């Protein structure tokens, strides 16, 4: 008999815990789904779509809710009179506004007619997009831009799409835009003209609480695991741990999945709290690393600065101490030097993300109040990330 079999003592359907799994119903998001329906009812009525901005932390159901609602709209339109809806999805992660426009064009083209994401003037790409929309058989086209915050302040496309019909770029088709973001401050980077259009209607997805996570995990567990594999305390225990930290369903499901793998690898017949605890530690390390890697280079330089001071037993350190060392390091790796005020904001942001601890020191009437900063995140994870950051990790004089 070979090494692999289709017999699994733990999982009934492992796919039910995968990231791309779409449940039949989305629990604990009834209010948000109802808001979606209210806003998109204009499309069903044949009117112009209202633009929507959807935001919330990672793993709170934004993309899944959007996909389920638009799937329902696609099914229901079969009963509509003179209304046909086409949905175009693009994940903007690591893409420029120009590249996103190219991907939108390619969504209307056959595989052998795809255009390259470079080499054309921006106006030409937009013109191609308007032509495809006009040639579409659909009465309505909805563009969904997931991780829209990746576009930064390059918001020309976000202005052009919602106003294309008003500006006579297209003649018949009604178009709308749905932007999904986990960056609450992204809207502040947009120009006033885009904010007034793109953020016409907003849907805010709050983090899940423990009870809601229990509902979600129970739904997935019923499909994923064999009968009597989960001990009774596992789901409430997992939900409580995640609710305290992030309220992310994605994280909770990932922990439950890894707990199942650990139990299976150990040959255990039941998934217990001990398996969840081990899985939690594994997931937290991965989450912290992902969040660190997503930080801009200047934040990496600041973290390296505090790391260097920590290794010299000079933390907690005051802002002035950090800034003096930061300037030297930024010069070494040929980076622009931030102002003291900008560094202060960056330190506070890193504290809010729990990478640094900010402690207040009160010296009384003579010394006043000030803050000191030290590490909160695991130092070895930070070292791993900084090693992979090109300017820091490749500079031999900086011993990461």
Short description:
The protein has 400 residues and is an alpha/beta fold.
What does this structure look like?
The protein has 400 residues and is of the alpha/beta class. Helices cover 50% and strands 12% of the residues. It is built from 17 helices and 8 strands. The protein has a 5-stranded parallel sheet, sandwiched between helices. A 3-stranded antiparallel sheet has the order 6-8-7. The radius of gyration is 25 Å and the shape is globular. Residues 303-386 form the Cdc6 C-terminal domain. Involved in regulation of DNA replication. Keywords: ATP-binding, DNA replication, Nucleotide-binding. GO terms for molecular function: ATP binding; ATP hydrolysis activity.
Please specify the SSE layout and strand pairing.
Elements: H1 30-44, E1 52-56, H2 62-76, E2 85-91, H3 97-106, H4 122-135, E3 140-146, H5 156-163, E4 174-181, H6 186-189, H7 192-198, E5 201-205, H8 210-224, H9 234-245, H10 249-266, H11 273-294, H12 297-311, E6 317-318, H13 319-332, H14 340-352, E7 356-362, H15 364-367, E8 369-375, H16 379-388, H17 390-393
Features:
400 residues, globular, five-stranded parallel beta sheet, Rossmann fold, alpha/beta, Arc Repressor Mutant, subunit A, Helicase, Ruva Protein, domain 3, 17 helices, three-stranded antiparallel beta sheet, 50% helix, single chain
